[in-house]
Amino acid sequence: MKKWFRNKYNQQVQSSKKMSHTNYDQQDQSLFALINQFKQSGDFVHFYNPQSPQPFWISYFSSLIDVEILHRDILPYLNTIKLSSLEELRGALPIENIVITSDLEIIQKELFKGFVLIQFNEEDSACALVRGEIKKVRELTIAEEEYSVVGPKEGFVESLATNLNLVRKRLPVSQLLVKKMEMGKLSKTEVAVLYLEGIANEENVNTVLQRLQKLEFDQIIDSSVIAELIADNGNSVFPQLMDTERPDRVAGVLGEGKVVILVDGSPHALIGPINVVNFFSAFEDYYMNWQMASAFRVIRLFAVIFSVLVTPIYVAIVTYHYQLIPKDLMVTLVTSRRMVPLPPILEALVMELTIELLREAGARLPTKVGTTIGIVGGIVIGTAAVEAGVTSNILLIITALAALAAFTTPIYRMSSTIRLIRFPFLLFAQLWGLLGIAVAFIFLTTHLLRLTSLGRPYLEPIYPPRLGDLKDAFIRLPFSWQSKRPMFLQAESQKRFVKKQAKEKRDIDE
Fold this sequence. Notes:
By secondary structure, this protein is of the alpha+beta class. Helix content is about 45%, strand content about 10%. The strands form three sheets. Strands 1-2-4-5-3 form a five-stranded antiparallel beta sheet, sandwiched between helices. A hairpin with a 7-residue loop joins strand 4 and strand 5. The chain folds into three domains: about 25-130, no CATH class; about 160-275, no CATH class; about 290-455, no CATH class. It is elongated, with a radius of gyration of 31 Å. The chain has 17 helices and twelve strands.
């Protein structure tokens, strides 16, 4: 009997929920119901002014509108001018972009953007939407992650309009096209795709647009979310789109024929397609002579190889191939390790994890405190570890140099990838020594060969080999030699300038 009453009660509750949901759907088709729904939020304002020449209802979200605009450009005119229709608002208010509509989707969308809703009668289905959003934008600052001694110091901010302005003033041409779209079911984030018409390959542009249009995700908080969702291989640790906070880099890659994605609320732009060599090229290289830029690029590439391989080679040699160590160095190594109870692999893992802990702690703490923690913590822990016999002096020097070498990578995401791939190399070195390092290198090379960025080869110009793109890869040759755009981009206009004219040196009298 109790079971019968319980089932009956549940049926009544479910039927009442269905009835209430049905009534809500029917009421939700009116503007009056939409406003009543917004009233449940504490920051929604809805009031009636009967004392003006034409009584009106006004509604807005107080957290989204600029109060100064409301009291300076909207309310004074509504309180003094006799209006017979919503159409007269266009000429009465000194504000552009006044929308008159009865479409509930448009009304809801514009209210959440900071528009003010105006009605003469609360039951009317039509209303006027007046722009009054508050514009709080972080001021332009120096690019922190890609800081350069030479060249512009401006960096992107979280405002899409400001970022577009920074790019437009560097490329004041009609060929620069901006395709905007709204993404995220909850966040409603505005995303812009930039490219140069007549230069960028249409296939690259269409690939980006199609992937963005097919993307279904509830919240697009930052450009990093898009970079992961539209990547060719989402399971790879290697970034397949470059992120940058420098407007000059964005303008430069657009001129090459690449595609750029800007996201409202993110200070980083996404660049694609990209190859692995681009991650080791600082944009500051283009602001110094080509000899210095080439030397620094070679140093960076050597530093990356050193950072990945030096600790695994130490573990492999000490564990399996100690015959390769010179006699003079063997004495020093034996003296350094005689008080260390741990095998080389555990010794190396302890030091690598300690370095990563210090680096992560320094990055998460405030700048001043983080710098102090990194320096003092490294000195204290390193000294204590050697004196306690946990690690040897030689390994401490090696891991410190490897950590410094990883910092030479200009792009932070690639630097993080290099930090991570050291650990598989360490494990392979422990298993099979130098042969294990070779096996790990084969796996890494195979993965990079299969990797693509927007369908373009990731290892270009190494594979497929393209000699023309080597002019701006491991080294940077003079600008006069770079008369064509990168071949792997397949730009519609390959020629950048006439090579003969670039090499001519005219006399001042001519």
